[in-house]
Amino acid sequence: MAGAHTPGRGHRHGASPAPEAGVPPAGRGHDRRLVAWCLAALLVTGSALGSVNLLIDGALREGASRPVYVGTLCVGVLLALALAVRQRVGERATVALVLVGDVSYVVLAWATTDPLRYAPPLMLLSTCFVAAWFLGARGLAVHMTAVLVACAFVLCDSYPSLGALVVPVLASAGMLDVVTFGVFVLRRRVQRLLASTQELSSTDPLTGLANRRSLVDQSPRVWRQARRDGQRVAALVLDLDHFKQLNDDFGHAVGDEVLRGVSCALAASVRPPDVLARTGGEELVVLGLVSDPDEARRLAERLRRAVAGTGAGQDWRVTASIGVALAHPADGEDPVDALWRLVDRADAAMYAAKDGGRDQVQVAGGDVLPLPRATDGGRRRPDPAAGGTA
């Protein structure tokens, strides 16, 4: 379960750091399957194109070259089948497969009578594409070096002197490496833009907390973990008391400051695995796993005290009414639907806490937890009788 965002930093407690660009985005199952299928398709395509030389008279050297050539093509097909069966591949395996492709090209070129005609360096384009799109920076550097060595080895017999060899090797390897590096840079930029877009789409811009969409995205994971661990899912709905009145008295800039301060306090008070989200206005939701109602009550009380402490030293004071609801996840239920049913129950309990006097916790189906009234300590406090929706 992803943890809460630390306000202003766009980071969640318990979330993995942004991965170095490798198998995109490095470690997710569906992406590893995509890489496996792409590699398998390229291996089959390369082997099919390479087999054309078997049909051309004089394309292969006499002797053992033909069995070596056929064997290399078969290795490519077998690797493709293995990838298709396994349906996943990590970055190290991808680096190894790219290097196998580079070596296979050298072997195939050696088996031909004229590499410039039957095995030109352009055949490395498929491995260059794989390296540019699926490898990290270190793996890419290894591949680019291998391309230079492969071009030099393949073309060395086609030119009479070292001086004559340098230009075509640098031209071929340079073109392939420049294209490879260019695609790699573009891919990294696209990945950063996608990561930034995803972060913006799942983060509340004012507080830095998770937003409603992120809360929904986390619900399947929460429900799976609850079923696996035999725990209950707890939803805590927090609504700031008299927040409209505070906005009216002090202005929306202060209201925004209050929301950010409350978010910081809550982010420091929730447990690392909990999901803390702002779902709209002055309402926040905490989603987490508990073993029993008492644990949920203790968490709610800790959050209530954290909110009450955010106005220290200010002209304003803020409190929160908290509703708590618990559920036992059932097999086969839709986690998103179950999430909103649970939040609705917690929301109703939150309104019951407001009706009971505010600044307190109400557990759905349980008793109100009355809390001692804090004194104003000489600070100005909005008058509840003055109105407001909260």
TrEMBL record:
GO terms for molecular function: diguanylate cyclase activity. The chain crosses the membrane at residues 34-56, 68-86, 93-112, 140-160, 166-186. Gene3D superfamilies: 3.30.70.270. SUPFAM superfamilies: Nucleotide cyclase. GO terms for cellular component: plasma membrane. Residues 1-26, 362-390 are annotated as: Disordered. InterPro entries: Diguanylate_Cyclase, GGDEF_dom, Nucleotide_cyclase, Rev_trsase/Diguanyl_cyclase. SMART domains: GGDEF. Residues 231-366 form the GGDEF domain. One of its GO terms (biological process) is negative regulation of bacterial-type flagellum-dependent cell motility. It comes from the Bacteria. Pfam families: GGDEF. Keywords: Membrane, Transmembrane, Transmembrane helix. NCBIfam families: GGDEF (TIGR00254). This is GGDEF domain-containing protein. It comes from Modestobacter muralis.
